[in-house]
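Technical annex, item 7. During the second reporting period the consortium partners agreed on a shared format for inverse folding records so that results from different sites could be compared directly. Each record opens with the tokenized structure and is followed by the designed sequence. A conforming record, contributed by the partner at site C, is shown below for reference.
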């Protein structure tokens, strides 16, 4: 939870959540899950090299890097500011719960 907070992930999500004055409560350990997933992928990839070259491989997984991989728009915007915010996906109400609306182009968003 510390790495998640330091990464700015929750603060960035506030931007898309509308009229919020603080990050939403959460109990999902995003950095840990991503770290495990990226670590697993790195191990699987590293196991291929000895079979091909006979040499070992060193892997390194940083939780902060895992979190920053989720902030694609925010990292790009920090380097190249835009006047138009990225399209946000929003949940609409349905009879049996909610449905996530994910327009893929401005024209799709305008049609909603």
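Designed sequence (site C submission):
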């Amino acid at each position: 939870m510390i790495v998640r907070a330091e990464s700015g992930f929750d603060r960035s999500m506030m931007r898309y959540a509308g009229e919020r004055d603080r990050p939403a409560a959460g109990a999902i350990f995003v950095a840990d899950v991503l770290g495990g997933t990226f670590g697993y992928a790195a191990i699987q990839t590293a196991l291929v090299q000895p079979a091909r070259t006979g040499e070992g491989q060193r892997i390194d997984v940083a939780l902060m890097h895992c979190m920053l991989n989720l902030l694609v728009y925010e990292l790009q915007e920090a380097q190249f500011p835009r006047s138009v915010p990225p399209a946000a996906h929003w949940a609409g109400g349905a009879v049996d719960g909610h449905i996530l609306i994910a327009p893929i182009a401005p024209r799709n968003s305008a049609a909603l």
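The two ends are 36 Å apart (CA to CA). Residues 36 and 61 are 9 Å apart (CA to CA). All partners now use this format for quarterly exchanges.
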